[in-house]
């Protein structure tokens, strides 16, 4: 499992404009990063020493700060630093746990409805935090860099300064390589996530991170190499910092949706069974959460990262709950209008009018699917004679329509349901193929480290595909039953009609 914590309503990256040439997919390894002898930048000049004795040597794919994801080596230093910096006495401590590698465990009895943490704003890392290297901060603000890239750069800057940074105790307790799909190679994404739509989301995220780094490099870093040397500010360190942000950044509704890294609070792991989440409490002036169950001494204390599917949890946090344990689990079903459709161009035009595309993905849960999916299906199967309804269908299929109406087209219902069923079964076949082949995957790998990594990734993929296929099987059952009811109803009506005809003969 992942040592996760962390963000409920994680916002998309606030990208600065990216050039098309910079939006490339790139990605190296997972758990086996290389430890290097650490050097540091001059804390006053914020530049790299050019002398041979002090020159920073950073090899590709190496992060020189942080610790292993399950390590407690820096936990006591972190707790002491937090207490010395204003964190009140806690009823929890960092320990190794079964769910999450590291987590916060109750030291005493904790009641249901009790407020915990009380982390003060002075311990938050936000876009307003003071830089140990003030010149670097001033440059980024002069370029109006948005919060996410700014925080990513800030984290690298502070980490590279080691003990010179106020945050050194916090950064030394962060994972050296966060569990994240950012660390999967393109080949691994293709190999293990070929059946899941989350693969496309992962590719998009990796592409955006790479594009954001390239934009910063071209527009800012190359112009100020004394502040942002490539030995420190490179793609590998940005994947690390964005991995930390994706898995730990918290949005605080009571502070006008400010995003922040909240040390100590980000050691809490996720449980699908709890509904409590972090927020700023104005009365106590700190980040808290209210327990929705009681905990005994030695029990791990959990929060919720939000109503996320198993795929979304894998995407940001690198773990997958057991199939059937996540009530918010969903799978994206891809629907597409055939190019041979006589009204293809007209349908494409109305879809674009409402920000939709061909194909389009819709979330399906074990309890059913959204009205948007049914509206898209109606549009896909509608004949030319219904062209006056195309825009209404596209509007209902988009999330821009605030007055969601469940469209009713009885004459099209059977065709629409069959259309959804065909796509559902095509998706199920992809999952079945992957799960059947997964047993024989990676048997050709001879390196123990490489084998361990691949087995770990494969198990995550198998867990994800099993949970997503389970939802599709349920949808398949519902669709087949509904189609059977429609056809039996039609047969019954036809029988009654024929009976009446016989009466009049």
From TrEMBL:
<keyword id="KW-0808">Transferase</keyword>
<dbReference type="GO" id="GO:0030785">
    <property type="term" value="F:[ribulose-bisphosphate carboxylase]-lysine N-methyltransferase activity"/>
</dbReference>
<dbReference type="InterPro" id="IPR046341">
    <property type="entry name" value="SET_dom_sf"/>
</dbReference>
<dbReference type="Pfam" id="PF09273">
    <property type="entry name" value="Rubis-subs-bind"/>
</dbReference>
<dbReference type="GO" id="GO:0032259">
    <property type="term" value="P:methylation"/>
</dbReference>
<feature type="binding site">
    <location>
        <position position="266"/>
    </location>
    <ligand>
        <name>substrate</name>
    </ligand>
</feature>
<dbReference type="InterPro" id="IPR001214">
    <property type="entry name" value="SET_dom"/>
</dbReference>
<dbReference type="GO" id="GO:0009507">
    <property type="term" value="C:chloroplast"/>
</dbReference>
<keyword id="KW-0949">S-adenosyl-L-methionine</keyword>
<feature type="binding site">
    <location>
        <position position="248"/>
    </location>
    <ligand>
        <name>substrate</name>
    </ligand>
</feature>
<dbReference type="InterPro" id="IPR011192">
    <property type="entry name" value="Rubisco_LSMT_MeTrfase_plant"/>
</dbReference>
<feature type="domain" description="SET">
    <location>
        <begin position="90"/>
        <end position="306"/>
    </location>
</feature>
<dbReference type="GO" id="GO:0016279">
    <property type="term" value="F:protein-lysine N-methyltransferase activity"/>
</dbReference>
<keyword id="KW-0489">Methyltransferase</keyword>
<protein>
    <recommendedName>
        <fullName>SET domain-containing protein</fullName>
    </recommendedName>
</protein>
<feature type="binding site">
    <location>
        <position position="305"/>
    </location>
    <ligand>
        <name>substrate</name>
    </ligand>
</feature>
<feature type="binding site">
    <location>
        <position position="280"/>
    </location>
    <ligand>
        <name>substrate</name>
    </ligand>
</feature>
<dbReference type="Pfam" id="PF00856">
    <property type="entry name" value="SET"/>
</dbReference>
<feature type="binding site">
    <location>
        <position position="317"/>
    </location>
    <ligand>
        <name>substrate</name>
    </ligand>
</feature>
<feature type="binding site">
    <location>
        <begin position="269"/>
        <end position="270"/>
    </location>
    <ligand>
        <name>S-adenosyl-L-methionine</name>
    </ligand>
</feature>
<dbReference type="InterPro" id="IPR050600">
    <property type="entry name" value="SETD3_SETD6_MTase"/>
</dbReference>
<dbReference type="InterPro" id="IPR036464">
    <property type="entry name" value="Rubisco_LSMT_subst-bd_sf"/>
</dbReference>
<dbReference type="InterPro" id="IPR015353">
    <property type="entry name" value="Rubisco_LSMT_subst-bd"/>
</dbReference>
<dbReference type="InterPro" id="IPR044431">
    <property type="entry name" value="SET_RBCMT"/>
</dbReference>
<feature type="binding site">
    <location>
        <position position="248"/>
    </location>
    <ligand>
        <name>S-adenosyl-L-methionine</name>
    </ligand>
</feature>
């Amino acid at each position: 499992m992942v040592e996760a914590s962390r963000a409920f309503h994680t916002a998309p990256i606030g990208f600065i404009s990216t050039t098309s040439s910079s939006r490339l997919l790139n990605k190296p390894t997972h758990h086996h990063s290389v430890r290097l002898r650490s050097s540091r930048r001059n804390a006053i000049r914020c530049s790299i020493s050019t002398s041979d004795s002090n020159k920073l040597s950073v090899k590709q794919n190496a992060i020189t700060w942080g610790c292993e994801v399950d390590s407690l080596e820096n936990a006591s230093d972190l707790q002491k630093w937090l207490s010395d910096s204003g964190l009140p006495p806690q009823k929890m401590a960092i320990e190794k746990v079964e769910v999450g590698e590291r987590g916060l465990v109750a030291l005493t009895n904790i009641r249901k409805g009790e407020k915990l943490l009380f982390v003060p704003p002075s311990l938050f890392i936000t876009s307003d935090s003071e830089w140990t290297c003030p010149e670097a901060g001033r440059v980024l603000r002069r370029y109006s860099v948005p919060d996410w890239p700014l925080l990513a750069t800030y984290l690298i800057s502070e980490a590279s300064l080691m003990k010179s940074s106020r945050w050194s105790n916090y950064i030394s307790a962060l994972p050296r390589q966060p569990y994240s799909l950012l660390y999967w190679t393109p080949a691994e994404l293709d190999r293990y996530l070929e059946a899941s739509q989350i693969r496309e989301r992962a590719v998009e995220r990796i592409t955006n991170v790479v594009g954001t780094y390239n934009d910063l490099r071209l527009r800012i870093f190359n112009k100020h190499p004394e502040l942002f040397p490539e030995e420190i500010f490179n793609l590998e360190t940005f994947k690390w910092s964005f991995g930390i942000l994706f898995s730990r950044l918290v949005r605080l509704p009571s502070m006008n949706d400010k995003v922040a890294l909240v040390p100590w609070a980000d050691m809490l792991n996720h449980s699908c069974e709890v509904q409590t989440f972090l927020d700023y409490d104005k009365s106590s002036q700190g980040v808290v959460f209210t327990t929705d169950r009681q905990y005994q001494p030695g029990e791990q204390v959990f929060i919720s990262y939000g109503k996320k599917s198993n795929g979304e949890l894998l995407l940001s946090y690198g773990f997958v709950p057991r199939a059937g344990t996540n009530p918010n689990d969903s799978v994206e079903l891809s629907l597409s209008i055939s190019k041979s459709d006589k009204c293809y161009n007209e349908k494409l035009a109305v879809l674009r009018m409402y920000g939709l595309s061909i194909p389009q993905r819709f979330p399906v849960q074990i309890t059913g699917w959204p009205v948007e999916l049914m509206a898209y299906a109606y549009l896909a199967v509608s004949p030319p004679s219904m062209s006056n309804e195309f825009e209404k269908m596209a509007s209902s299929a988009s999330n821009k329509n605030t007055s969601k109406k469940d469209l009713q087209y009885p004459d099209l219902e059977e065709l629409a349901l069959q259309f959804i069923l065909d796509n559902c079964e095509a998706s199920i076949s992809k999952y079945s193929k992957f799960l059947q082949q997964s047993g024989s995957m990676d048997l050709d790998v001879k390196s123990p480290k490489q084998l361990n990594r691949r087995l770990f990734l494969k198990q995550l993929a198998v867990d994800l595909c099993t949970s997503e296929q389970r939802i599709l099987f349920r949808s398949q059952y519902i669709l087949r039953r509904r189609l059977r009811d429609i056809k039996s109803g039609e047969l019954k009506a036809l029988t009654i009609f024929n009976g009446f005809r016989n009466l009049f003969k």
